């Protein structure tokens, strides 16, 4: 896509034509979808890396933080489905989960600031069992999609991941945010499904503005919303579908509450989400 889409108002017409061509391709060739969004092991917002080295949990964590982002966060069924593509004979594989033992066992993700959601837990029946020597989490038999807690000193293969979502804590207009992302990273972030939404909204608690810009944009000429990455808006998370559509509006996610999307004027200044390339290493 032409990187100067919004540099001049006339360039939006070119982008709309390009977007319509993409829509036509999807309609007439539905089986030929982009692997960037219908992926098996690599997804748009994060990708997993299986490391076939035997390390204890702490060693695995240090390796992942040096080479990638961190030990893997596996919080949704979509994540678990991706992991089924691992061909490993190992029964247990480390993920970025550890437990703080005591009166009540509490679970945490390795990545600092990422909250553990108990409703998304995939513990095997009877786990975690609360033994003081078993404080780290592993996936047991990838095809079973279940977690166990085991001794952190045990050695096992492990899963790392690269996070492709960057929260930029600078207040900029939507257009300024777009230029920044394309110059320093890849693009403003695209959210195509509920799993993407969960992945992105986890980062909003670190934002310093009430809303955070995304790559969602409204075209006045044709009267619909689109993603600047060429994606058609299928999944929607609007705070209110009845919000008025006006020219020069873009989509932002609320920092608090239910992290719904709001239609905001381009000149408002908020933090923003950039997406990075597969080769870019960073920690948010």
From TrEMBL:
Q: By its UniProt entry, which InterPro entries does this protein fall under?
A: C-type_lectin-like, C-type_lectin-like/link_sf, C-type_lectin_CS, CTDL_fold
State the source organism's domain of life: Eukaryota
Tell me one Pfam family matched here.
Lectin_C
Q: Enumerate the CDD domains for this protein.
A: CLECT (cd00037)
Residues of the C-type lectin domain: 48-161, 161-275
The alphabetized UniProt keywords are: Disulfide bond
Q: Say yes or no: keyword Disulfide bond present.
A: yes
- Which Gene3D superfamilies did the record assign? Mannose-Binding Protein A, subunit A (3.10.100.10)
Q: What is this protein called?
A: C-type lectin domain-containing protein
Q: Which organism is it from?
A: Oryzias latipes (Japanese rice fish)
Task: State the organism's lineage.
Answer: Eukaryota, Metazoa, Chordata, Craniata, Vertebrata
């Amino acid at each position: 896509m032409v990187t100067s889409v919004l540099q001049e108002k006339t360039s939006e017409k070119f982008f709309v034509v390009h977007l319509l061509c993409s829509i036509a391709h999807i309609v007439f060739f539905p089986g030929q979808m982009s692997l960037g969004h219908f992926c098996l092991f690599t997804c748009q917002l994060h990708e997993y890396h299986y490391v076939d080295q035997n390390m204890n949990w702490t060693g695995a964590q240090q390796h992942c933080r040096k080479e990638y982002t961190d030990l893997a966060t596996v919080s949704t069924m979509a994540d678990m489905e991706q992991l089924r593509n691992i061909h490993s004979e190992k029964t247990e594989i480390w993920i970025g989960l550890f437990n703080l033992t005591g009166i009540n066992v509490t679970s945490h993700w390795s990545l600092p600031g990422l909250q553990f959601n108990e409703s998304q837990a995939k513990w095997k029946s009877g786990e975690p069992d609360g033994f003081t020597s078993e404080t780290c989490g592993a996936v047991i038999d990838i095809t079973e999609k279940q977690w166990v807690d085991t001794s952190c000193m045990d050695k096992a293969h492990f899963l790392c991941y690269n996070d492709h979502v960057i929260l930029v804590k600078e207040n900029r207009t939507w257009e300024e945010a777009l230029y920044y992302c394309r110059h320093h990273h890849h693009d403003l972030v695209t959210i195509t499904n509920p799993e993407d939404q969960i992945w992105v909204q986890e980062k909003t608690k670190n934002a310093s503005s009430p809303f955070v810009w995304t790559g969602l944009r409204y075209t006045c000429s044709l009267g619909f919303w689109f993603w600047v990455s060429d994606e058609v808006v299928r999944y929607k998370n609007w705070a209110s579908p009845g919000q008025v559509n006006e020219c020069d509006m873009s989509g932002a996610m609320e920092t608090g509450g239910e992290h719904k999307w709001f239609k905001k004027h381009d000149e408002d200044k908020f933090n923003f989400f950039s997406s990075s390339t597969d080769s870019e290493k960073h920690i948010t």
